[in-house]
Amino acid sequence: MHDRSSITSGIFYPEDPQILQELIDSVLQQGSDPQKLPLAVGIPHAAYDRVLPHMGTAFSALQGTVPERIIILAPLHDPVLLEDAPAFIFCSPEQQIHTVLGDLRLDPALAQQVLSCSGEAAAIRSSYFEEETAVELAAPLLVRLFGQVSVLPLYIGGTRAADAQKLADLLRTIITEETLVILSLNLSAWEGAQESLTHRDALLDLMSSTAPVHYIDSYRRKEISTCGVLLLEALRRVQRAPEPWSILSIDDDTTPSSQGRRTQYGSALLRLQTAEIRSTE
Predict the structure, then answer these.
(1) Which end of the chain has the least Cβ crowding within 10 Å, N or C?
(2) Domain count, the chain
């Protein structure tokens, strides 16, 4: 295992540490009362000029909490390489990621536990961490708020229901009472502006529902287009009973790009406690 410097610094957010720290501090709501640690928080991934206010809203809701372990679940946007199949859960080989605000400490021991529990479904691969950006986009805020808390970043591929069940089974074995799960997902794909709004609203309805929902079925029917469909489905299957997400923020400006397309962003909180997690079946 080794260390790696962030590849997103200077591209997706400022490279100057003082400017970046001031930027992050400007979106964190100060004076929030300490909250009980939720099971999960959902944050978007894109350049900070598009998504930092949403990330700030989500992380503001975590101020005062003290997780012992953080698990990042992030989607792969391209298919898993044929030579890596049947693995779809990918751990990092690094021990830490260097950012301009400090080092994000990873958890190699927990990564080994993932490999032990998941068999052929999990593997250690650096390539996905070099190609994708979601983990590194969350890193500066994690360093700023949680300092030396160890982090397990996982990139997850595919949309198969069987894989969602395998991921849910894994999460039950590694989530403790003091674990915070961060879902990195956008509320729609990069698509036509009106289509992205329709897909966003359909996803928010599912996330806010107190009735059983099936994200993968809705995705297959093209009712939603989020890149985080398997992540949401896995967390749903972890629960003993349906628990709605609290939607914290969504885009106010829905103006399409010059190509007439856009992605919808937002943030959400899942106020579920460990006791409400279903035991491994």
Answers:
(1) C
(2) 1
Q: Encoding tokens for residue 259?
A: 């190509």
At residue 177, what is the residue type? E
Amino acid at 238: V
Instruction: Tell me the pLDDT band of 271, cut-offs 50, 70 and 90.
Output: confident
Cα(178)–Cα(199) distance, integer angstroms: 33
Residue 260 lies in a domain: yes
DSSP state of 106: B
Across the strands, what pairs with 104? 97
Distance CA 278, CA 141 (A): 30
Task: Detail the DSSP E strand segments found in 166-238.
Answer: 179-184, 191-192
**Number of neighbouring beta carbons within 10 Å of residue 207:** 22
Read off the CATH number of the domain in which 158 is found.
3.40.830.10
The full DSSP string for 125-179 is -SHHHHH--HHHHHHHHHHHHHTT-EEEEEEE----HHHHHHHHHHHHHH--TTE
Question: 3-state class of 266 per DSSP?
Answer: strand
| Token representation of residue 256 | 């399409």
116/199 Cα distance (integer angstroms) = 37
Encode pLDDT of 220-233 as tens digits.
999 999 999 999 99
Which residue in 250, 201, 223, 225 sits closest to 43, CA to CA?
250
Question: 225 is in which domain, residue-wise?
Answer: 37-272
What is the reported pTM?
Answer: 0.93
Q: Are 13 and 48 in contact (CB under 8 A)?
A: yes
